[in-house]
Amino acid sequence: MTLVESMNPRTGEPAGMGVSETPPAELNSTLSLAKSAARRFASEPLTGRIALLRAIADKLDNRADELIPLADSETGLGKDRLTTEVARTTFQLRHFADVIEEGSFLEATIDTPAPNGKPTPRPDLRRQLEPLGPVLVFAASNFPFAFSIAGGDTASALAAGCPVIIKAHEGHPELSRRTGEIISSVVAEQNLPAGVFTVVFGQNAGRDAIVDHRIRAAGFTGSTTGGRALFDLATGRVDPIPFYGELGSINPTVVTKAATRTRGADIAAEYVTSVTLGTGQFCTKPGLLFLPVGHGLDQALADAVSAVPASPMLNARIAENYAQISAEISAHPAVRNLVTPRLHTEPGAWGVPALFSTSAESFTEAADRLAEECFGPSSLIVEYTTTHELINALQSVEGSLTATVHGEQSDIQSIAPVLDVLRPRSGRLIWNGWPTGVAVAWSMQHGGPWPSSTNPLHSSVGASAVRRWMRPVTYQSFPQDLLPEALRDGNPLGIPRRVDGALRR
Amino acid sequence: MTLVESMNPRTGEPAGMGVSETPPAELNSTLSLAKSAARRFASEPLTGRIALLRAIADKLDNRADELIPLADSETGLGKDRLTTEVARTTFQLRHFADVIEEGSFLEATIDTPAPNGKPTPRPDLRRQLEPLGPVLVFAASNFPFAFSIAGGDTASALAAGCPVIIKAHEGHPELSRRTGEIISSVVAEQNLPAGVFTVVFGQNAGRDAIVDHRIRAAGFTGSTTGGRALFDLATGRVDPIPFYGELGSINPTVVTKAATRTRGADIAAEYVTSVTLGTGQFCTKPGLLFLPVGHGLDQALADAVSAVPASPMLNARIAENYAQISAEISAHPAVRNLVTPRLHTEPGAWGVPALFSTSAESFTEAADRLAEECFGPSSLIVEYTTTHELINALQSVEGSLTATVHGEQSDIQSIAPVLDVLRPRSGRLIWNGWPTGVAVAWSMQHGGPWPSSTNPLHSSVGASAVRRWMRPVTYQSFPQDLLPEALRDGNPLGIPRRVDGALRR
């Protein structure tokens, strides 16, 4: 039996005993259990789902002391960061509980009959969103809690009322197994069928599951290559299913001339912190910094980057890719090395920060190479002379999760053309801040135009993430007793509804 | 230059002079105009879009007397039906104007800053939906107004703020050209750029446009085969785009034993009316009627179907397909012919109603043949003995736009298992009614699980249809003057918004 084995990136030593890949027969019974659990879970009162999410959050918080060292040994992300990440993960579970408790997520909409309606009579129509059925999630490597077993895709799918089968990431199998056991124990304590939640292991299991008729939607966070392959499988099915992939992102950041003058040194320092956070392994890492020519920050930026020590990367493959791509950028004829990439020769998987610089003109010409995401602690300064040149360069940047502008009050009148080129290229626009750190909130958008996500209509973070796993169903002229509770006369659930076009509570 | 030529289905004679296919160079400039119009149209105040939709509706109403005879000569649908359809189409345009005037469609959501937020501080976050950019629409044949040039996809995309390029259906090119001219004249009267709306002709233009980088989403109403081919093109792009296809649908209808006893004759008569409406060319035609064994309605059903005269079908290809598929079902060994299909030998494209019957057991065994949509005025009675047998048969039915149950008060306690098998298979559930006739309303759902649509999350009719053409954008820590109006302090648009989780006006 093949094992999924992790490595301690600080030492290169095995991080545990390994976890067996899920064999086809076991995957098959997992899929059947999820399918049969789907109806039962969908008909569970909302209070049951709310209790489930809160109980998972509580139990994860209680077990954090045991999970964090395990996560650290498999990912090398460090105990401080992982402690914050557990808190974010359980906050997110509770946030989704709050979202479904509020009730708007059902989009309950009622049109009372209009027997004399023009142009034709209108019957009694009542619409709500209902769960799609079993959801397949592919866990990410870089957030072993927040975008993994108990992460946003799992939490939002459970909130939507969908059973979850999650394919563990190869980078942290022991943590995945342990987190999965905790969630499954809560599912049992809540008297829900075991098929509501299962972790599977191995790439074959993921590939087999995504084309299985029992899976009704899938979510993914990871590389553009991996996400594209799974997107093609999901959309190429005899019965295509929705696939939500959050892929790579370059996250351009623009600094105006006025902001450079006023607080260039601060911006440079903050930038380096954002780029090197978590060894640069954030999908929102600001990979491009557009600075005006003559900014005078080369030395400050280079010093700040050089001062950041090598730190562990998630696994050997990621460290090798980082070394390769940063070496390619370093060797590009149009690129100046402010901090030349260095290999870390100690055992394990380490990343050494690097920093590059080029002109906007060169960037525009070589964007296919230079605007490519480099996952890890390096980034590229792009120097522009005029707004025209800046806009030209930005036009060669592909879709991103975020785009950031650092500007002053005096820029507000003139910045519109820059925002007009950034807006269609990003899901979140940031003013005088940094893209790393994705707040869990009602109004968060974490997604964006291709290739930053496979579908720009959706978000993997924030309240609206629930909608990815639900579909509208309309009941026409239905007897009260056969209607879902959310749509009955008298609003027994006390949720916000739209009645004859007007929002009501 | 190749012409798109229509035929009068009543006579087989040409219905007009034909319209030239759009040559590649013209398509290219159309795409560029749409792209450059997108930014201008998106930044137009909502009042501009509202005025545009209402002005299109007014002008179509004013020109109805000229358009309806043209539509009748190209489609043979008859002046009464077409008069209602124009009214439905202009009602729909005005409904979308009302929807955007109400403002909830923007989903404006604000989270005020929480500098001491746990687990991490939360910045000021403001989210709204914004237009995706140029939308490509493929018009349908069977509703030359409501699902064609001025139909729901066009209306909802314009309401969303997206320029529309619509590929005319080959069945009614003259009407398409004329309707397009009317809409374009309104676009000009409203001082909007011409690229906001263009009609293109020919399958090559459609195929070239759907893979063009300037197109950001596409909508389609038509056959499963055609829709699948376009879906594959849209999702196979280097930069995949959302594709919303409303494809075929079989629309199962179940009659309980009690309803058969109480009002079987009425149900039979209404059923035949629904099946033969518009020569059976509705995507919501109830193609399967599940009746209890011993229903005693064979003669009544056969008499009612025989009494419906042959009527024109939309075009020769559709009439040939209908003749072929109904002949295959007629010849199936498990099928009894209640009304045997007949060919109509007069010139033109005509459909003669037919009616078939089989047992639930045979249906379940041969569902791959018998549960296939037959576009035209034929349908299949499926006789069941027990609820168990009924449910087995329903489980072999694929996703549909609708599913209908005719039942009595006495059925309400026992019908849940039947609804449980219908619900995951349909987008709209109907009690004691008929699926034909899709009301334009806030709570309509017109869409459903594959193969009735390519994406079960969306609807092509009703207020939520706008959402298909919009994507969320979040503004983080933005200055008031740079925020979209919908997200500014003080709610200058006076729209419903969610602030710190609570709905407010």
What would a concise description of this structure say?
Chain A has 505 residues and is of the alpha/beta class. Chain A is built from 15 helices and 21 strands. The N and C termini of chain A lie far apart (56 Å).
The named CATH superfamily of the largest domain in chain A: Aldehyde Dehydrogenase, Chain A, domain 1
> So what's the overall shape of chain A?
globular
Distance between the termini of chain A: 56 Å
The pair of chains with the biggest contact is: A-B, 89 and 89 residues
Average pLDDT metric of chain A: 97
Share of helix of chain A, binned: 25-40%
Largest sheet of chain A: 7 strands, mixed
Per CATH, what is the topology of the largest domain in chain A?
Aldehyde Dehydrogenase, Chain A, domain 1
Tell me the CATH architecture of the largest domain in chain A. Answer: 3-Layer(aba) Sandwich
How many strands in all of chain A? Answer: 21
Strand percentage of chain A: 15-25%
Write down the domain tally of chain A: 2
What ranges of chain A have pLDDT less than 50 throughout 5 or more consecutive residues? none
Oligomer: homodimer
Decide which structural class fits the backbone of chain A.
alpha/beta
Strand adjacency order, main sheet of chain A: 13-15-16-11-10-17-18
Task: Describe what you observe in this structure.
- The structure is a homodimer.
- Chain A contains 15 helices and 21 strands.
- In chain A, helix 2 packs antiparallel against helix 4 (about 80-100), helix 3 runs antiparallel to helix 6 (about 175-190) and helix 4 (about 80-100) packs parallel to helix 5.
- Chain A folds into two domains: about 25-105 and about 130-245 and about 455-470, Aldehyde Dehydrogenase, Chain A, domain 1; about 250-430, Aldehyde Dehydrogenase, Chain A, domain 2 (3-Layer(aba) Sandwich), CATH 3.40.309.
- The model of chain A has no long low-confidence stretch (mean pLDDT about 95).
- The first copy, chain A, is an alpha/beta fold and about 500 residues long.
- Chains A and B meet through helix 4, strand 3, strand 4, helix 8 and helix 15 of A and helix 4, strand 3, strand 4, helix 8 and helix 15 of B.
